[in-house]
Amino acid sequence: MNTCLVTGGAGFIGSHVVRRLLAEGYRVRVLDDLSTGRRANLADVGGELELIEGDICNPDAVARAVRGADVVFHLAARASVPRSVEQPRQSHDINVNGTFNMLMAARDAGVRRFVYSASSSAYGDTPVLPKREDMAPLPLSPYAVSKLVGEYYCRVFSEVYGLETVSLRYFNVFGPRQDPNSQYAAVIPAFVTRMCRGEAPIIFGDGEQSRDFCFIDNVVDANLRGATVPNLRGEVVNIACGERTTLNHVVQVVNRALGVNISPEYRDARAGDVRHSLADVTEAARVLGYEPRVRFAEGLERAIEWYRCNPS
User: Fold this and answer.
1) Helix, strand or coil for residue 13?
2) Taking the chain, what is the end-to-end CA distance rounded to the nearest angstrom?
3) Is 143 a residue of the active site?
4) Each residue of 86-105: pLDDT tens digit?
5) Residues with pLDDT less than 50, the chain
6) Within a domain: 66
7) Most exposed of 96, 113, 186, 275 (fewest Cβ within 10 Å)?
8) Backbone angles phi, psi at 236, to 5 degrees
9) Nearest one of 62, 14, 63 to 39, comparing CA atoms
10) Residue among 143, 153, 170, 290 flagged as catalytic
């Protein structure tokens, strides 16, 4: 693996992948339209880094970015379930058409491996836990559908065109540099930053919904493994910790860490949100040799410390 293309490389997960690749001596090219990614996320990196400001929905920009790449890490997406409910066409255009553009360009450029950032939202709200890759998907939102379609395209491009692909179904990723300011912000950065300011965290629902939170370092490790293990042809694997935590418990832990006692503000549950989420990571261990090295408690402690030192 010599030159790596990271789409969405100026975003939260992408910038962590970029840093790891550079630290290991790879040449890295980033394709990002900077709509949600930030140059600041890459400002202090060293190594051979090229940033192309461009859109994955633009075939010309995609073709230029893919040229000469050995591996594509495709992280660029229109994220967020609530946003997709409000703006379904944008989710479809970016997550489906953009992913198709990337796969076509990768095929035509002779890319060896395509590592796709998929989503656990594909499982929907089926009551069976933990979620396993052999379960029938039941997506509940336009976002979930759009990410699932990307998985199907990856498998087809492996079977039909011989492009090596793997789809990493992320569960709830968190860690440093995750944006807490958007109205669609993920739970942990939103909770921590509000509570650092003495404000009540906002919970949609009763707070007893649970998530399998996965620290960013685990996700980066999964991406690198997805790029290097041999003989992948469209596999789909869960990337998580295999442990379930309620949102109410997250608030309790953050309260203890900050030495405060702030009660959450409860609001109506949102359309498209699942009730419980928990991963079985056995297949990821078998296919990738993956294991979550940073558990939730340690990851949350590290995330809290980062947000305290980097107030928004």
Assistant:
1) helix
2) 36
3) yes
4) 999 999 999 999 999 999 99
5) none
6) yes
7) 275
8) -125, 130
9) 14
10) 143
